[in-house]
Amino acid sequence: MGCCMIVYDGEFIIGEDSFDEMSLNKTESIMCQGNGYICVRAYAEEKYPLRVVNTFIAGTFNKYFDEVTELPNVADAFSLDIFIEGVRFFLTRENVSDYNKSLNLKTGELVRSFKFRSCDNEFEFEMRRFISADNIHLGASKIKVIPLIKSANIVVVSGIDGKVTNSGDAHFIDVMRRFYEREFIVSHTKTSQSNIDVFVNVGHRTFVDGEEIFDLPKPKMGRKSVFGEFNFEVGSELIFEKYVSYYTSIDKDVVDGQYYEILRENMKLGYEGLFLRSAEALFLKLWKNDYIEIKSKNYIDQLSLNYALYHMFVMTPAHDNRMNIGAKGLSGEGYKGHTFWDTEVFLLPRFIVQNPLAARSLLEYRYLGLDGAREKAKLNGYCGAMFPWESANPDDGEVTPKFSGVDVFSGEPAKVITGDIEIHIVADVAFGVYLYRNFTGDDDFMCRFGYEIIFETAKFWNSRLEDGDDGLLHICDVIGPDEYCEHVDDNMYTNYLAKWNMEYAIDCYNEILHKNPNLLIEIDLKTGICDVINDIKLRYEKVYISTPDEDLIINQDSSYRNLPEIDLTKYKEASLVATISQDYNMEQISKLKVSKQADVMVLFLLFGEKFSDDIKKANFDYYEPFCLHDSSLSLSSYAILANDIGYFDYGYELFSRATMIDISQEMHSCDDGVHAASYGGVWQCVVYGFAGFRMIGGVLHINPKLPEEITKLKFGFYYLGRRLEIKIENGKVDLKNISGEAVSIIVGGKLLEV
Amino acid sequence: MGCCMIVYDGEFIIGEDSFDEMSLNKTESIMCQGNGYICVRAYAEEKYPLRVVNTFIAGTFNKYFDEVTELPNVADAFSLDIFIEGVRFFLTRENVSDYNKSLNLKTGELVRSFKFRSCDNEFEFEMRRFISADNIHLGASKIKVIPLIKSANIVVVSGIDGKVTNSGDAHFIDVMRRFYEREFIVSHTKTSQSNIDVFVNVGHRTFVDGEEIFDLPKPKMGRKSVFGEFNFEVGSELIFEKYVSYYTSIDKDVVDGQYYEILRENMKLGYEGLFLRSAEALFLKLWKNDYIEIKSKNYIDQLSLNYALYHMFVMTPAHDNRMNIGAKGLSGEGYKGHTFWDTEVFLLPRFIVQNPLAARSLLEYRYLGLDGAREKAKLNGYCGAMFPWESANPDDGEVTPKFSGVDVFSGEPAKVITGDIEIHIVADVAFGVYLYRNFTGDDDFMCRFGYEIIFETAKFWNSRLEDGDDGLLHICDVIGPDEYCEHVDDNMYTNYLAKWNMEYAIDCYNEILHKNPNLLIEIDLKTGICDVINDIKLRYEKVYISTPDEDLIINQDSSYRNLPEIDLTKYKEASLVATISQDYNMEQISKLKVSKQADVMVLFLLFGEKFSDDIKKANFDYYEPFCLHDSSLSLSSYAILANDIGYFDYGYELFSRATMIDISQEMHSCDDGVHAASYGGVWQCVVYGFAGFRMIGGVLHINPKLPEEITKLKFGFYYLGRRLEIKIENGKVDLKNISGEAVSIIVGGKLLEV
């Protein structure tokens, strides 16, 4: 079996060295292209049964009957049906050679090149594609076909295919499909429930043997689809360029004129001209400011970091505060485009530090979700805002599906209860606000959005606490970050953050009371915080927090440490995650001492300054052996902690594994989309871990601890409105203030004015 | 290019001699399997991008948002994902040999057999499948794989895939998917608008190297799908049997017990046992009584007639009078499962003559549709019942889509106006009642359903007539049978049938008035016929009917003969139909002297006794050259007429072309479903044409005219409740009365008592 391999080429190119239909989905995900507005999986133009064609436009959520809201797969404009001498063109292991598929992270271009043998001819193919970083609505592809033995008849059927679904759920209703000027192909559909119009426009330019061809395509209108058929007699070369634009009725940038006319104007620049514009824009929007130089003995570290930055650009709808980042970005159907705690705890830090405007937009999304969160709290009998475990449109409230997969024993659908009891998300959002505010000093955000979030989340916790016989307040029946432990009491992470959330609300209250009493009145009208703040003050200190035992171990929850142990070797060594669920159902897993992911470790990441290194070490040593790292959020949390406590080798190993979550040789790890949060995790490993960035007491601390493999780190960042640049090399830290007034930073324990 | 060929084998086997992905859809349609309740296209178990997977259950119509009602594609239970040594099994032209796919019309079994080469092994495959004619809910498949070079690891993923759509429109909502007893796979979905529950149940039996295997499959539950994964190490032979059952909430036969438990009971018989039962049932339900022996110099005539009978069995939901026959039967998405005039004019005669119970059920469907037809009449400002051009559920009324395809010039969707103005369907239904009644003598049907249909349709026509300046009554702005003529006045076929329909209503009225006055009162309460009958009597004779001119030509409509002629050679010779629409839009075609199909000829078919042979000849000669036969209804109408008027050679040629509409070597003629009515047309060519059956003045006339090629015809039929058998051979007609009292038939002009 000649399986294909992922190839790592230089700083910016990730590739695949041969064709294997069984592995299509992997590169479709990791090589997806987009700009935060739209994202197109890197699916092949030609059809394969295992191919997954997805085009997602951020924020176009729709609800299929009684299912939960999800991001719908919009019409496919990049597939092509190519017929050579009347036979459908597609690749098999046997008819292709010199295959290479690669994504250039720097320019955003996807290229497939290969030689294809038909029964009596041979062809050189080059298929290029980009989604514009310049004009977010635009994309284009350019196919070059060179017959090598003799001339060939090549028919290309190209247009818009609206027969796509989300695994069988169709989200769109036809409004209109047609040709304009016998040449431009357009489709107008709308989502079935949310009534969002989506407009797709397609134009072509074609060249045969060096001459541009102006023949009109033969129109083909099928159900939910509209195509043009092009018929070419190709002597030396066919160039087939396809230009595509997407618009929706919720776009904030309103466009003047007919979409196809705009496309026609753009097409005058040709593929190369438009691509150049896009690559320049990608440089300005991403690489110019956000590039992180990492000199490592393993050259792949630089590539994988660039890879993470690329995807964080592609997946982030920074242009619109009604939208957030999905757990799979915009790269696949997984998790239905929903936003989780992944944003605040794993991805937000990267934006706070490198792109505060985007960070603010992501947090404004949570503010817009307050009503839905209030509604969820009310439905569950609580006060304040109970942010949903999964969110889609800000005002949708909770959208976690009720079932997923199958219970191996009963044969029934397996229940999903995270939407009911994984409540730490509420404090995670508050923590995101806190971190953003501390790092950026954005008081405007706090006044308009932040305080209200903090008060409402604190109110939720205050109402959620339960009186215990010990005179303390407990939080029972939750899922903490470690999702293999369902229905636990006093999950350390949850309790700690709940307490902190209440305490921070008190701080905020006092702050406004003194600085801006009129604002307090305004916010009180919306939140009723004044009525409840005294209660919060009285109660927050009574929240039960597990204290380290004689071995310095903190209880993850009230029962974990007493659970029976089993031999986990098989699952720890499995190349795919969650293999344990093939042997046990969730009820059984919850009764075993086994973790899906970091739990207490995440607490050490957020509030590291509150715990001694000894405690961190003891808990790392205790918990890691039971952790299967079955969540992509796990490795980076452990990696940073390992680096912090001086486990440099293991830390670097965990970091390396984290960078490889999606781009390893395991060909099915990300079939249904990339692991968005893991990219934030990789970034954190570098900036929090190696560079040692941490906010403590409202001041940035930088305490670099480079593992042996890494010899240099250099990158720019924003802090309290200033643009700074840091270089860490040879045990030295260089900090430059690029713009703005001097600012205080504690580097290696010493206060510096930069 | 090694294109595959359709192979005709003996009386009962239609096959395909090699594998070609480009031609998959052809055999999927023509080899579809079913029993009138359910029909499964003969799609390959393994996936191909061009494969069209359809399973239709009669009458489960659903409406996708604002589209017209259509028959939804239900979950796929016959696909299998087969992996050999980890590589997905599928065929290419290169890796397969000795390929044969064939359908045995007599037993209903589909068989694919071939040799498959993997990179380092070779396999013999045999894949068999049937849908039971015994238990209409049941089907099964049996896959045999023999590794030829060495043993092999074979993984089969098998279950229920609900990710199917109708070209992108999803009609089903998930209710429940699960395993029972870790072995039975079930799915329960419901249609999104009509709320019809569909239950699919799957079980397996597997044998490796001669031993039955009882390992439990590994459950895999994805979106809208549920599968079991089987893993086999195969030395000499793998046998994989899959058992499937389908039920719906509109089934008339209510089943006692859990569906999967019933399936388990059935599975005990094994594939072979169940298949035997099915083949026996198919014999009893179809071949025993309905087989028509046709001895011809072209052996294919017998096969193609058997083929037509097979499909008329598969497509006809004779079990339920809420259902009718779709224009593509149940074999494809084409025409959305809708019923047209095809039923009454082309298919019904076969059932009237050979299966009167089914014929009655098909007409009861129209009776159930009266309210919808009344509603349509009212909406259009008319009285009585205006039967819809396309119908789905009886009470849906008109369901013709408003658009189809693209206008080649404007680029806009092409309007479909048949639903508005192709009104001859109203009289076609009445004619069906008339023919059924005359042939069967079923007065019970007339009293309960028939009279009401006749009165309501006559009332429609009476209200539809327009006063002309000539003192006559006209019917303007219609489409006649020839759909290349839109917006015509006084279409001969329409006017003639309208007049006849009114006249027949008068006859019926007089009949009941004298025989059963109480019934008249009852029917009058529902129809108000008594108030309007005098008006009908006064007006029907004034309906304008074109009289033959000096050349004996009858005007197809008021304008056709004055239209400009163009050279039609190119279109007449095209292997695919409707090629003219690539050069002209409908507005332009309507202004040319060109016909899609027979128009006046159909009138000669229904009311042949009213026109002299000279007139028939003259009109045949005049109209046929302008006819592109772009409707599958056209050839048989012309063929019968040609035979009638003594154009035996041309008649036989047209007959032969009619038999080949779907089973010719043209590989795309029936991609989206078979041409249901053409099978009725073929049957009519034989029984109406060659055997010369015709009802004239309420008496059966038999006037055989065998073309030279055909030397013997023998078949059974029902007439006025008697079972008869006819043999035509060597210029002699043998008529036998198998059961019942003697009956009068006019054979070759002489009255016989049989």
Q: What features would you describe in this structure?
A:
2 copies of one chain form a homodimer. With 754 residues, chain A is of the alpha+beta class. In chain A, 32% of the residues lie in helices and 25% in strands. Chain A is globular. At the A-B interface, strand 7, strand 13 and strand 17 of A face strand 7, strand 13 and strand 17 of B.
Provide the fold topology.
Two copies of one chain form a homodimer.
Chain A: E1 6-9, E2 13-16, H1 24-30, E3 33-34, E4 38-40, E5 55-57, E6 80-84, E7 87-88, E8 96-104, E9 109-117, E10 122-131, E11 138-147, E12 152-161, E13 172-180, E14 184-191, E15 197-208, E16 211-213, E17 218-222, E18 225-234, E19 238-248, H2 259-267, H3 270-290, E20 292-296, H4 300-315, E21 327-330, H5 342-354, H6 356-368, H7 370-379, E22 403-406, E23 413-415, H8 418-421, H9 425-440, H10 443-464, E24 466-467, E25 473-474, H11 492-515, H12 517-527, H13 529-539, H14 569-573, H15 586-589, H16 600-606, H17 613-623, H18 634-644, H19 648-659, H20 676-690, E26 693-696, E27 699-702, E28 710-719, E29 722-729, E30 732-739, E31 744-747, E32 750-753
Parallel strand pairs in A: 27-31
Antiparallel strand pairs in A: 1-2, 2-8, 3-4, 4-5, 6-7, 6-12, 8-9, 9-10, 10-11, 11-19, 12-18, 13-14, 14-15, 15-16, 15-19, 17-18, 20-28, 22-23, 24-25, 26-27, 28-29, 29-30, 31-32
Radius of gyration of chain A, CA atoms, in whole angstroms: 27 Å
Mean pLDDT of chain A: 96
Largest pleated sheet of chain A: 11 strands, antiparallel
Beta-strand proportion of chain A: 25-35%
Largest interchain contact: A-B, 59 and 59 residues
The quaternary organization reads as homodimer
Discrete helix count of chain A: 20
Structural class of chain A: alpha+beta
> What's the count of strands of chain A?
32
Proportion of residues in helical segments of chain A: 25-40%
The coarse overall form of chain A would be globular
